[in-house]
Amino acid sequence: MFLRPEPELGWLPTHVQVTILQAKGLRAKGKHGTSDAYTLIQVGREKYSTSVVEKTPGSPEWKEECSFELSPGSLERGENCDLLLTVMHRALIGLDQFLGQVSVPLQNLFQEGRSQRNQ
Predict the structure, then answer these.
(1) Domain ranges of the chain
(2) What values do phi and psi take at 24, rounded to 5?
(3) Which in 11, 32, 56, 91 has the greatest CB count within 10 A?
(4) Is 18 within 8 Å of 66 (Cβ atoms)?
(5) Phi-psi region at 16: left, alpha or beta (left = phi > 0; alpha = psi -120 to 50)
(6) DSSP label at 9?
(7) CA 35/CA 52 separation, integer angstroms
(8) Is the keyword Secreted assigned to this protein (predicted)?
(9) pLDDT, tens digit, 9 for 90 and up, residues 98-117
(10) Cα–Cα distance, 94 to 1 (Å, whole number)
(11) Is residue 48 exposed (0-12), middle (13-18) or buried (19+ Cβ within 10 Å)?
């Protein structure tokens, strides 16, 4: 997270930087026991999608980064601000298939008083 000073409130996060390393233990949804996996990352209304890792047997690796701007004062006001990660299988025909999802509440990290957190 990047921080900015606020005289009356101390340091407040203005951005969150996310690095997607890999997923583990995914079930195969494609042919031959593999998946064509990608991750959708969302904070508030902002979204980012990783590239597709083709024909992965269950532990795709991305090593991709993205950054999201937080609305001013959202964390200290207690607004619902979660980092949502959704892993999908790209289907060439029909709808993409759900592989897994996790939500990380950013307010909890802020309340812990840490400027950085690896998870």
Answers:
(1) 2-111
(2) -130, 145
(3) 56
(4) yes
(5) beta
(6) T
(7) 10
(8) no
(9) 999 999 888 777 666 554 55
(10) 37
(11) middle
On the 0-12 / 13-18 / 19+ scale of CB atoms within 10 A, 118 is exposed
Coil, strand or helix: which one is 102? strand
What residues have CB less than 8 Å from 52, skipping those under 6 apart? 36, 37, 38, 90
Q: Look at the domain 2-111 and name its fold.
A: Immunoglobulin-like (2.60.40)
Q: Which two tokens stand for residue 62?
A: 């991305």
Residue 91, C-beta contacts closer than 8 angstroms, at least 6 positions apart: 29, 97
- CA dihedral defined by 86, 92, 94, 95, rounded to 10 degrees? 10
CA quadruple 17, 21, 25, 29: dihedral positive or negative? positive
DSSP readout, 26-75? PPP-SGGG-EEEEEEEEETTEEEEPPPEEEESS--EEEEEEEEEPPTTTT
SS3 106: helix
